[in-house]
Inverse folding.
């Protein structure tokens, strides 16, 4: 494969780049620093261990990198984290499935009464590159910190299962606007491959190490080949996603122009038949409720 025209630093949101920076014991200080910023003081990780089952989920998923980690906090408590650089498909359900598996895998084969459901805390951390949080609407948050809580008053019901989604498309700060290390990490994640060097805004030892590690010129020939493949895969995925978004936009414009429920129903049926879009995506971009899409789906299943 011919070598691509490269910037000075690799794109660390590619599968290869993400593993290169965060996926080895040698560089676990980088991952610890990043995770600690995401927890924003709620947890302080002192050490972590890469569990052998790196790919807990569906390994055939394209664009999915998963690290299964056992972390030790500064107070000695231990908890489990799964870090993903993931694809868009069925995002929320997949994360719920992965978290459930991490919980279920803690159960002993026998003598569960003595175990007494001593479940470690479980956190799923998701890096979303190039796409938005499903059902987010007009919200432009770049960090979604989620736990189980009461629907009526918002009080936390169970604090030992959490999801942190990093929505990079909504992080739009310029270098001069970076105010803390979380900002700096997200800025580097989003812009690394377009930077020419370490600016004064990023002049810290942890970022100095990151920039040295991510220099393309320091990659061995076989590493360059793997990175180039990974970069092409990312570009292909972005092209497919862009094409799908354009189809949804055209379908939405058509439905709006028709201005009739019947017209929208036909467009929704076609989108459902394509098996490319979730119900919530179809609802949002055809300007109807999720319930209406489900009604059309049910009618379609009955052959109406």
């Amino acid at each position: 494969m011919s070598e691509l025209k490269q910037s000075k630093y690799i794109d660390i949101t590619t599968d290869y780049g993400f593993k290169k920076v965060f996926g080895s014991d040698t560089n676990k200080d980088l991952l610890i620093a990043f995770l600690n910023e995401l927890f924003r003081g709620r947890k302080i990780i002192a050490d972590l261990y890469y569990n052998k089952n790196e790919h807990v989920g569906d390994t055939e998923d394209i664009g999915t990198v998963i690290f299964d980690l056992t972390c030790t906090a500064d107070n000695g408590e231990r908890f489990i984290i799964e870090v993903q650089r993931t694809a868009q498909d069925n995002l929320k359900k997949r994360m719920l499935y992965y978290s459930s598996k991490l919980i279920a895998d803690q159960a002993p084969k026998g003598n569960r009464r003595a175990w007494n459901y001593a479940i470690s805390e479980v956190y799923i951390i998701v890096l979303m590159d190039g796409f938005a949080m499903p059902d987010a609407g007009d919200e432009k948050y770049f960090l979604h910190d989620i736990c189980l809580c009461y629907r009526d008053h918002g009080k936390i019901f169970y604090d030992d299962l959490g999801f942190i989604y990093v929505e990079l498309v909504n992080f739009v700060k310029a270098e001069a606007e970076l105010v803390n290390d979380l900002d700096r990490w997200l800025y580097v994640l989003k812009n690394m491959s377009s930077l020419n060097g370490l600016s004064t805004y990023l002049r810290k030892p942890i970022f100095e190490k990151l920039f040295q590690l991510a220099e393309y010129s320091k990659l061995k020939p076989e590493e360059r080949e793997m990175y180039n493949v990974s970069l092409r895969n990312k570009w292909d995925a972005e092209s497919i996603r862009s094409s799908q978004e354009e189809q949804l936009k055209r379908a939405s414009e058509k439905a709006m122009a028709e201005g009739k429920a019947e017209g929208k129903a036909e467009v929704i049926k076609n989108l459902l038949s394509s098996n490319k879009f979730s119900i919530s995506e179809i609802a949002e971009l055809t300007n109807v409720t999720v319930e209406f899409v489900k009604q059309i789906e049910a009618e379609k299943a009955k052959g109406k």
